[in-house]
From TrEMBL:
Name under which the protein is recorded: Uncharacterized protein
InterPro entries linked: LANC-like (IPR007822)
Residue positions binding Zn(2+): 265, 314-315
Any GO BP: peptide modification
Matching SUPFAM superfamilies: LanC-like (SSF158745)
Record keywords: Metal-binding, Zinc
Length: 397
């Protein structure tokens, strides 16, 4: 396994062009993600070569920003924008890979992120990867930095102001997503309510705005639980829908949403992770029991769709390595560790069956949907103590 990690990371490093005038520096698709790979490989493979590469990537990141020679699909987002780049430096500080003064380096950038994040939440761009909630998540990680708390409180108020809350609970429109119905609510981790509740749980865990946050969590969980259906009613596809449309004559369409696949981004695994997070933060054993019930069912591969899995993190084998490892770390139940390692073995088999020239190119070098995510996932399978980077994907519990 280590040889594959080194070979893939070396290829990613060799592809970096120091004179590139339009460099993608993003966390999940670009240079920031590669920086993370090198630091983790250096520490957990005990190889100073990769640590040096990590520092070189940091220097290149900063030079690229200062020279304004970067390109980003979305200037502000956590996935493809400056929020993710700032998060990288925050993470590297936390994990003691380096010491970097974020206030000095990104003070103006953070103020820009606050303003655009607040506007995003006010118009329903609640997406964690591509909208305001990703910026909120970054600000939470920056606590106890003094300026963060008032920004967080304003963004939290904007989130609640845009939410729909009634007897059915709380749900949130996500105007980032295209091709959706007028009143459609996403329940997933990557773009919807499950991920948003996990971010709110970070505030609860830190004791911030406890009454307000507890209310939002309670109402959000009420909505999700209200959409749970017996397997017999969903064609034995899943307990929860990936999305839900609140319009008349949509029963058949909504039933189609009860088709779960094994993935980090969507499906019943999302709800298992959400319940685990809530159980830990709220100290409710019944939530942990619900999480275990859902998670154990996902181990039956004939029930959940795996035919569209790819090699990468978002909806592929790499993501499943980390999801099941997270569940194992949270529950201590060996069957989830076994599942994580089994998916790592499947990933290695798929890599060996398909030479890199068939699937590796400049468009899939990132963490979310590329080779950097494979590198870190295999590293975590080999060295479980290397799982700290999982907080990027809300798997930090």
């Amino acid at each position: 396994m280590e040889n594959r990690i080194r070979h893939m990371l070396d290829a990613l490093n060799n592809a970096v062009q120091t004179e590139d005038t339009e460099r993608n520096i993003s966390l999940m698709q670009g240079l920031a993600g590669l920086t993370l790979c090198n630091f983790y490989a250096g520490r957990y493979l005990n190889d100073p070569h990769y640590t040096r590469k990590g520092h070189e990537c940091c220097d290149l990141l900063i030079d690229t920003i200062n020279n304004n020679t970067y390109k980003l699909q979305n200037l502000f987002s956590f996935c493809n924008g400056l929020a993710g780049v700032c998060y990288l430096f925050c993470h590297l500080n936390e994990k003691k890979f380096l010491s970097f003064d974020i206030n000095d380096g990104f003070g103006d950038t953070e103020e820009f992120l606050f303003n655009i994040g607040l506007k995003s939440l006010k118009v329903g761009k609640s997406d964690y990867l591509h909208g305001g909630m990703g910026i909120l998540y970054y600000f939470i990680r920056r606590l106890p930095e003094e300026k963060m708390l008032p920004w967080i409180m304003e963004m939290l108020a904007a989130y609640q102001g845009k939410a729909r809350i009634d007897d059915n609970g709380m749900r949130m429109m996500n105007t980032v997503l295209l091709g959706r119905e007028e009143i459609e609510f996403d329940l997933g981790l990557a773009h919807g309510l499950a991920g948003q509740l996990m971010i709110l749980a970070e505030l609860k865990d830190k004791g911030i705005a406890e009454t307000q946050v507890s209310y939002l969590i309670e109402q959000g969980m009420r909505f999700i639980e209200g959409k749970r259906r017996p397997l017999e009613a969903t064609g034995r596809n899943s307990y929860y829908p990936t999305s839900y449309i609140e319009m008349e004559n949509m029963d058949e369409q909504n039933l189609d949403f009860y088709t779960s696949r094994l993935a980090w981004c969507y499906g019943d695994l999302n709800q298992a992770l959400m319940y685990l997070k809530m159980g830990k933060v709220l100290k409710k054993e019944e939530y942990i029991a619900t999480a275990k019930e859902i998670a154990s069912l996902t181990l039956s591969n004939d029930l959940y769709k795996t035919d569209k899995l790819n090699l990468f993190f978002c909806h592929g084998y790499s993501g499943l390595i980390n999801v099941y490892d997270t569940i194992y770390r949270a529950t201590g139940e060996q069957m989830y560790k076994d599942a994580s390692l089994a998916w790592a073995e499947t990933l290695l088999q798929k890599i060996d069956a398909h030479p890199p020239e068939q699937w590796a190119d400049e468009n899939n070098a990132g963490l979310l949907e590329g080779r950097a995510g494979i590198v870190l996932s295999l590293l975590t399978a080999q060295a479980p103590e290397a799982a700290g980077w999982n907080d990027i994907f809300l798997l930090n519990f």
